[in-house]
Each structure stands twice: as structure tokens, then as C-alpha cells.
Amino acid sequence: MPRLRQIAMVGGVETFGVAIGGIAGLLIVNVLPKDQYAAYTFLVACMTLIMGVTDLGLAHCCLPIVGQRAGEQHWVVGVCHQVFRKRWLLLGLGLLLVVPYWFYSSRQHGWSGAPYWVASLLMLAVVLLTLREHYANTVLLILSRISTLNRVAFSAHSVRIAFVGAVLLLPITSWSMVGIVLATAAASFVSVLLYRRAFRRHEVVDAHLDAESAHRVDREIIRIAKPLVLPGIFYQVQGVITVFLVSMFGTASMLAEVGAFGRLAMVLMVVDRVTNVLLFPAIARAPMGPRLSTIVAQAHVAYFAMGGLVLLTSFFLPQYWILLLGKQYASMTPLVWMVFLASILMNASGFAFRTLSVRGATAGQTYSIPVTLITQVLFLWLVGISDLRSVLWFGIATSLANFGYQYALLALRWTGWRREPAPEDAQARL
């Protein structure tokens, strides 16, 4: 019963968050002119890419390194501090890679003027705040402060929808997009303040590992993250590849349509957020053996069932989904199922990857790069990119390649997880 109540609490808050985020996003899609929404989509893609470069596999290190020592607060904080210190160092690399792309595409589409520059600077502020959010969230998640995470998430979602509503109630001007970005920045700022208060309330003090422990943790970070560096760079680009292609070779209208379609797939985020809070920490802590393999198998079967249900509604009832975007996107109704198929496949491959990464099983990820590249090159050679439909088929082909590879790796690992560990193997984990 406690576990069911916890699932209900987290599921309720995350459903509320996704609903609020979805409502805010759909209001933005419906009210903002296409040219402003195109610029907003582009800036969000740049922010996502910068955040991705600060990761490069590091985000997947905390849970497996902490392992079964999640009850030791000093150890949890020390490990997270050691990992996130490296993420802050990678921020400079992210800016170095993304700023030239931002400058080139901004000039290509004629995005300029004070509102656009202010919105760009606000997006940079969101990056800085988000890194702090991720650190605090990871620490409290490992310490199982679920109710605190729920309260912070609820407050942040409420702040964002309030700001978005205030902006959209005002007359639409060239500064409207700035207000939308400011809403995201305000929500992140409130989250950081609430996390700091939560740290004081739960007496979570800053902790640093001693030299020997830090050295051992660094070795584990390298072991887990090293196989993910190249895939990390590659898949961060892949995460915004459709926006990247359209921003380079398409029109601003097509870019707005790609961004609008992304709003429809937000319904899938409920499951992902609940599993991030409840499922993956449990998988990280579970000892090797039949119970671990059973948890993994049941979770993935349930995930496929929910994804399949969403896909069926998008295929047979696309007109109801497209109503959420407004009349200016009505011509895209026949393509709704393609958006959901690509999103479900990509989310499922991410689900498989996170299942592997929380157990420290990151070996073999580098080989996913040639699998994906070969698929994409073949698609561009045989089909090309000429309109929105071809962009969506490109996304489906990419997602299918990722899906097949990640589940092949998971199947290989799953057979090993079913066996009980030898005593010396059980003692070897940090």
C-alpha cells in the first residue's frame, strides 16, 4: 500500500505537471504567430543541446555509484557533488559548440532585434538554473524525499502557467516570446529557491568526499561515462536533429510545425517522469537475481502497453489531437500518428537505455552511432528531406534504429541479471 500511495502521489503531481506544461505549450502554439513560435522552438533546441553537452553520460553516474548506500547522506551528497562538478566544467564546451550554430541560423532566418537577443540571454539563464535544479533533484531523489520533490514540482509548474497566462492575456507583440521564455526562467528560479529551503529543512549539508573516496568515485565515473561520451555527443544532436535540419534547410513555417507537433507528444512524459522518480532508483538498489529481472520485464511490458494505447488514438482519432494545436495547424492532421510513433519508439529506447545505465551497464553504447548513422544516410539517400512528411519519416527511421539497438543490449544484459551474484561480486560494488 505505501508503494501504491507513492505511485499515486508522484503520478498525480507529474500528470498535473505535464497537463500544466501541455496547456501552457498549447496556449503558446495557438496564440503566438508562427514566426515567433519558430524562433522559440529554435531557442529551446539550442538550450537542450547545451544541457546535453554538459551531460555526456555524467547524468547516469549518480544512481549506480551510490548503489545500495542510498541511506548514507554524506555519501550521496559527496557523489553527486563529484559528478556535477564535471558537468559545470562541460558547460563551456556546450556554449562553444552551440553559439556558432545559434548565430548562423539566427542570421539565416532574420531573427534579430532587442526582443530576440533578450530571449536568447534568458535561455542561457535557464541553462544555469537548470543545472542547479538537476543537482538538487538528484540528491533528494536518491535520498527518497519524494514528497519534497512533488511540492517543488507543483510550485514550479504553477509559476510557469501563471506567467504564461499573464503573457498571453496581454496584446501579442514582438516581446511576447520574451515573456514566454521568462516564464520558464521564473519557474526554474522558484525551483532552485525551494530546493535550497528543502536542503535546510532536511539538514542536507554540502559534503565533499575524502581524497581516497573521491579517487574511487572518479574511477567509477570514468568507467560508466567513458562509453557514453561519443554516444552522448551524438544523441544530443539527434535529440534536436529534426529542428536542426529544418532550421538549416527549411522555412520558419516548417520549423514552427515541427515544434508544434512536439507538444502533442508531451503526454508520454507522465510515464517517463514517474519511472525516473520511483522505478529507476529501485532498479539501481536491487540486488542481482530473479527479482531484478522480473521488475525490469514488468516495467517494460507496461510501458509498451501504454505507448500502444496512445498510438492507437493518434491513428484512429487524429482530429481530436490536432484540435489542441489550433486552426493554423489543421493541415497536419494526417501526420499525427507519425509524430507519436517516432516519439514512442525514441522514448522506449531511452527507457531501455536508462534501465541499463542505472545498473552501470553502459558498455557497447558507442556502436549505436554507426547503426543510427547508416540508417540516416540510407534514408537521406533514398528519400531525402523535402517537406514535413519526409522530416517525420526521417524521425521514425532514426527512432526505430535506436529502439532496436537499445533493446538488443537490454536483452543481452537481462539474461545475466536473472542469475544470483557470487558473494565476491556483491561486495565489489561501491
TrEMBL record:
Main localization (coarse): membrane
Coiled coil location: none
Protein's UniProt keywords contain Transmembrane helix: yes
UniProt keyword terms in alphabetical order: Cell membrane, Membrane, Transmembrane, Transmembrane helix
UniProt KW Transmembrane keyword: yes
Localisation: Cell membrane
Cross-referenced InterPro entries: Poly_Biosynth_Transport
Protein name: O-antigen/teichoic acid export membrane protein
The species this protein was found in: Variovorax defluvii
